[in-house]
Design goal:
Blueprint: E1 5-13, H1 15-29, E2 33-37, E3 40-46, E4 67-75, H2 80-87, E5 91-93, E6 97-100, E7 111-114, H3 127-137, E8 146-149, H4 155-162, E9 168-172, H5 175-187, E10 193-197, E11 208-214, H6 217-230, E12 231-243, H7 247-256, E13 260-267, E14 270-276
Parallel strand pairs: 6-7, 8-9, 8-11, 9-10, 11-12
Antiparallel strand pairs: 1-3, 1-4, 2-3, 5-6, 12-14, 13-14
Helix pairs in contact: 3-4, 6-7
Length: 278
């Protein structure tokens, strides 16, 4: 007997972090499957769990910082694997790294990362993840102790271990991301990554040579002081999840915490910055 679903098509602007926030809130409301696209996300909930006021408590729909429209329809049955597979293509970064799904052909690159993102953020498709992968590719991480804060799928920690970093911590406040990172760490045969569910409070009395934080502007501004206190001498901090116009705010907060600007990557108005504890 097939299950009937209600399928929503959401158009989100700006797409990130709007889509990421929307997915998290819909998950709490009972939606169980998501397919991201360039305009936003398709979200599905079983008809038996659906009601007219299902979106009433979705706070981002009332947030004036985002423009979100949607339509919905009843769907007899959804082949989730088929939906996901047709929307997820491999991502190549600088000819050195490929992020792909298990059903994609194995590529001839130095770093082959296999993930199943499910409801987690961080496939390499989004500009911020892509730039963070570039930073890791361009950095000697051998033997460095690394933190991937807001790890999503765990893809950044996985690449760092593949490049010789150890030990590594991967932290995310979202339970889906925590579980998905555990799966992807195992899938890529990583032996030096510890995954934790939580927030910046987990960093007390910790020290890292490299901290990677791909989150969003407001959380970064709130947590930079904690990152700075955890960095070893000459340690590196890589930040992303914000726009070009946010650079002065982020830089000011980093300088206030005695971090020195070192490098910048830009992609479609998204930015990734590197700071050094010197």
């Amino acid at each position: 007997m097939s299950t009937t679903y209600i399928g929503y098509t959401f158009k989100v602007s700006p797409a990130q972090p709007g889509t990421e926030i929307l997915i998290a809130e819909l998950g709490f409301a009972g939606f169980e499957s998501f397919v991201e696209n360039v305009d936003g996300v398709n979200a599905y909930i079983q008809k038996d769990d659906w009601h007219d006021a299902i979106l009433e408590d979705i706070q981002i729909l009332k947030n004036e910082q985002f423009s979100i429209s949607y339509v919905y329809e009843e769907i007899a049955q959804v082949n989730w694997n088929e939906e996901w597979e047709k929307n997820f293509q491999p991502i190549e970064v600088d000819g050195k790294c490929v992020v792909r799904a298990p059903f994609h052909e194995k590529p001839s690159v130095a770093y082959d990362i296999v993930i199943e993102p499910k409801m987690s953020f961080g496939t390499g498709h989004h500009e911020t993840t892509h730039m963070m992968l570039q930073h890791i590719l361009n950095t000697d991480v051998t033997g460095k102790k690394v933190l991937d804060m807001g790890c999503g799928t765990g893809v950044l920690a996985i690449l760092a271990e593949m490049k010789g970093a150890k030990p590594l911590d991967a932290i995310d406040i979202d339970n889906w991301c925590y579980l998905n990172s555990l799966e992807n760490v195992e899938r890529n045969n990583c032996n030096h990554i510890s995954v934790y569910e939580g927030d910046v409070s987990l960093l007390e009395n910790k020290t890292y040579d490299i901290i990677i934080a791909n989150i969003n502007r407001n959380i970064l501004l709130s947590d930079i002081h904690q990152y700075a206190s955890c960095l070893s001498e000459n340690g590196m901090l890589f930040l992303s999840g914000f726009y070009t116009e946010d650079i002065p705010l982020i830089t000011e907060e980093c300088v206030k915490n005695k971090l020195k600007y070192a490098d910048k990557l830009e992609k479609n108005n998204w930015v990734s910055l590197k700071f050094v504890n010197s």
